[in-house]
Amino acid sequence: MTSQRNHTPVRLLIATAVLGTGVALTVPASASASAATSTAYAQARPATAQQAPIADTRMRPAQTGSIISSRLVADLTAQQVAAELQGKVDSSQVRHGVTAYQVVYRTTNSAGEPTTASQFLVLPKTFGRHLPTVAWLHGTIAYRKDTASENPGSSDRLAAYLLASTGRAVSAPDYVGLGVGEGFHPYGDPRATVAATVDGLRAARAFAHRNGRELDRKVQVSGFSQGGPATMLVGRALQEEGVDQYFRLGALAPVAGPFHLSVFEAAAADDKIEKSGLYLAYFATAWNKTYGLYSSPSEAFRAPYDQIVEELFDGDHTTEQIAGALPPASKDLFTEEFLDRIRTPSGVLKQRLHALDTTCDWKPNVPVSLFHARGDKDVAASHSAYCAQQLKDNDADFRLTDVGDYDHNNSVEQALPRIVRFFDETADAD
């Protein structure tokens, strides 16, 4: 393991990590296409571009975060938690049993309209009334039932179990349009991401209060893959946007996030990553629904796939079903004209990509720890370096840790025990 630190006076930044489910799509990025990410940062950063709004308002509407329903998902002893983690995640830090729930709550979608979302809420079996608070943000998921609150085999569920077993309350939102929430998933949309996470925290606080527990107002936020940029978006909203009257940012720990999304999408257009077409198709169909990238499927997709691709990404088809119906290469799935638009974005596409290319372009006033694996061929380590450079340019303090020669999914497994220690250190410093 290698670790780098950047120091500026007084402030130390920390981040938490989010794990993607093993059966879901994970957001990949080409190692070769991303190798120059850090050195190209200055050129890639538009001087006058305006970042898209992070949240829909300065303060979340009063009714959002209210609980619609809840159900018990699991009731585990510490020994049972350790058994769940065995062979997947280091269980040596497990200290308590946990109870886990699926909680459905009110939130808003990418347009700021009322909708519902679900989350996986895990509380530790401890005697203390007050609980440290963690928000756990998952990686890319195409099938709505692959989320932690729905899928017993979800690796996000394991991550939440581990963090809760160390004495923390863990709110793991399924995001808008996944789990049992309404509508479609606006893949990566900052507005919906922040809304589902903050409203999930509000619902978690209300649920815990009903059960005689109180959540700490300082939130340790962590995310894996897609959840990496989400971690930074949520952190910034909690610190700068004042999206909730109670919760404040406590720490940040993103893992293997695609922080330079425009580079990733261009690499996918050039088939420089494995199964480029599938990842780019998810991106294109979701962003078309959210922002409008094409007027008809045939403008973006070749026949006969233009007739089926949008239905495949409706949230009700599994990853296996999608992969079985579409070609893995972008050149076989997309029109050349659309691929050129991805390679050299303009207009709305350029603006929206810029918002996700700059999720680290601010100065957190809390500890931050970035994690990546040098063996990751999906989301190259250069993405974390790119995020670190943005933090450095803002005079922020941070850690950048290489967890070793591991692939994308294993990177978060290696990062999780380090995140627990990092959160412990942060709590001790408060």
What does this structure look like?
It is a single chain. With 430 residues, this protein is of the alpha/beta class. Helix content is 37%, strand content 18%. It has 16 helices and ten strands. The chain has a seven-stranded mixed sheet, sandwiched between helices. Strands 1-10-9 form a three-stranded mixed sheet, with helices on both faces. Helix 4 links the parallel strand 5 and strand 6. The two termini are 27 Å apart. The model is unreliable at 1-57 (pLDDT under 50).
How many DSSP E strands?
10
The Cα radius of gyration reads: 20 Å
Mean pLDDT: 88
Task: State the helical fraction.
Answer: 25-40%
Counting DSSP H or I runs of 4 or more residues, the number of helices is 16
Low-confidence stretches: 1-57
The gross shape turns out to be: globular
Strand order of the largest sheet: 2-3-4-6-5-7-8
Strand content bin = 15-25%
Class from helix and strand fractions:
alpha/beta
What distance lies between the first and last C-alpha atoms, to the nearest angstrom?
A: 27 Å
H/E topology pattern: EHHEHEEEHEHEHEHHHHHHHHEHEH
The biggest beta sheet is recorded as: 7 strands, mixed
